[in-house]
């Protein structure tokens, strides 16, 4: 099945997005998902903020 969605000009494989803080620093992801599963099933990671510094 194709679950892809478009958000403006951005196309995501799936509408599933991990929100900031829900997975800590990301260290726990490998306990539940393989890297392949993450790449295939998670459309985006939402950050709290981004800084150059």
UniProtKB/TrEMBL annotation:
InterPro entries found in the cross-reference section: Aldolase_TIM (IPR013785)
This protein's name: Dihydroorotate dehydrogenase
Protein species of origin: Thermodesulfobacterium geofontis
